[in-house]
Design goal:
Elements lengths: L1 E6 L4 E7 L5 E8 L2 H12 L4 E6 L4 H10 L3 E5 L11 H21 L1
Parallel strand pairs: 1-4, 4-5
Antiparallel strand pairs: 1-2, 2-3
Helix pairs in contact: 1-2
């Protein structure tokens, strides 16, 4: 199992992929379009089962529909309440992947 955290924005989204141990495997940016996001998720899910997480926002349903269409489960979080110590192991790993994507975005843009 691998874990994908994605920070979705209108034009471009950033993502962070963790392995089963919670180690960052890959990070990147993707255009927030159905074709680009579909290609990303298909590529990342091709080798191993993938569980994705996103912060709740205006594009949550769009992301959910794109990911589910290619067979990837998506968990949605309100990050004000998503604290790893209060969550199960899978949700905690997804929360770390989400943090990794948002932290990487802010550090790469600054």
């Amino acid at each position: 199992m691998r874990y994908l955290g994605i920070d979705v924005h209108v034009k471009t989204s950033v993502w962070c992929l963790l392995d089963a141990r919670g180690t960052v495997v890959e990070r990147g940016k993707v255009d927030t379009t159905a074709p680009c996001m579909t290609a990303l998720v298909e590529r990342l899910a091709a080798q191993e089962e993938l569980l994705a997480g996103q912060e709740v926002g205006k594009l949550s349903y769009f992301v959910h529909d794109v990911f589910v269409a290619v067979g990837v489960k998506v968990l949605s979080f309100n990050l004000d309440f998503a604290r790893p110590r209060h969550m199960g192991a899978e949700s905690s790993t997804i929360s770390r992947a989400l943090w990794g994507s948002t932290h990487w975005m802010s550090s790469s843009m600054g």
